[in-house]
Design brief:
168 residues; 5-stranded mixed sheet; 45% helix; globular; alpha+beta; 7 helices
Length: 168
């Protein structure tokens, strides 16, 4: 990651690495996620072209919904990256909120919990669905993880108990 120069090149957009690699849950095919604060999507897109356009498989697009985030994907030395930038500061982005609650859950749950989530990932589940599966959460796993992000550690521990549920 450091050799790519991506983070220093995007420093003005407050880049934060998130996702499976820093969580220790990467499986074959995982990518490195970088979340950025990009209040000006055109400026952010230009910076992505300048900093990342030289990398293999570079592609970039802009969502049509919400605040129209810009996303770029590419590979560096065989490792896939996804850069996500939106007008919302990183701390308020859904991806960052997912990441931070997943960090907390892994810290609270210990080795057995980590192993269960990793087993779900190895079986093909994406990160948030893997956590939801292990926790026995119903419904949309992405929404469920955002709901968990609002809880304190005591609430998370309650959810992690066998038969626990959000708000229990």
């Amino acid at each position: 990651m450091a050799a790519s120069g991506i983070l220093p090149g995007l420093a003005r957009f407050d880049p934060h690495v998130a996702g499976t690699f820093p969580l220790g849950l990467a499986v074959p095919g995982s990518d490195i996620d970088v979340l950025c604060h990009a209040p000006d999507p055109d400026l952010f897109a230009a910076a992505l072209w300048a900093e990342c356009g030289r990398f293999e498989h570079f592609a970039m697009w802009q969502w049509r919904k919400a605040d129209r985030p810009v996303v770029a994907t590419f590979s560096v030395e065989g490792l896939a990256f996804e850069i996500f930038g939106q007008a919302r500061p990183v701390a308020g982005q859904h991806g960052w909120r997912h990441f931070t609650v997943e960090q907390r859950l892994l810290g609270l749950g210990g080795t057995a919990f980590r192993d269960a989530v990793l087993a779900a990932r190895r079986a093909g589940a994406k990160t948030e669905p893997a956590f939801a599966q292990v926790l026995g959460l119903e419904g949309d796993p992405y929404r469920a993880m955002l709901d968990l992000a609002e809880m304190d550690d005591a609430g998370l521990l309650e959810v992690m108990k066998p038969g626990g549920s959000p708000g229990a």
